[in-house]
Amino acid sequence: MAGKEGSGLAIHGLAIIGERINPGFRSTRALFETGDIAGIQALARRQADAGAAYLNINAGPQVATAPEFLVTLIRAVQAVVDLPLCFDSPDVRVQQVCLEAYDADQARGRRPIINSITEARWHLPVRAGGCPARVIVMASERMENGEARQNRTAEEIHATARRCLARLTRESGLVPDDVIVDVSIGALAADTEGATRAALDAVERIGCDPDLAGVHLCGGLSNIAQQLPATTRGGLALREGLENAFLTLAVARGLDMIIGTPWRDYRLLPDDDPLLVAFREIIALTGRDALRRLLKLQRS
Which of 5, 44, 169, 226 is the most exposed place for a label (fewest CB within 10 A)? Predict the structure, then answer.
């Protein structure tokens, strides 16, 4: 059976939640559409062998009408890997199906992760003794005067993380190590308001807050380079380089977990790396200036 504790990544202390069992990826969607369970199992093994610490399970919209497929999927994955799973759905009914299908013994006694909740969508399956899983909290939005509002600043993200941890420990019996705060990495190509800089600053604020000691910090790393070409005109690996540039700054601030593709070449960049230099310049800007600097990088 494939799977091992921790991550095979070259970045010490960084764990990866393997993202590939998700119909958002074209190759995976084809496996789902043809019911290729053996192909999905092979994908699970590949992620485990590449160093994933968890495997994210997202079965797409079909789970609403065919929950039995989700049960089959979970059991098939657990038959070939012994990693704990991460259940990617905002629907508490889907979460419950996942938790009932999950076999902790197949994961060497380790609990799964619920991905995810927000202050505006606070639905957790709770059993006697508390929540039966670790939890990813999306700190990108907050409740204010009874309405969901998008967090725009590091201060807002930090404050939301504090409230969520307090509530999870009080109501669901979780401890800080059970809580994973997602600071929401967005697409750099659409960032005109400094959201990437805010996410990085939030990582630092949360990581330095003694009241949040022990929580984990994560984000969906592949989001950063969405809508961008794979390489610059001059042949630099643009998507990979921007992912690694974000990691270089975020890990130094306290990021210790990502949702990503385990076999990608994740690594920390030296200070003089041209993509890291450009990334720092881009996130220091806002509006059209940020987009112009990103375009200049693409053309380099």
Answer: 5
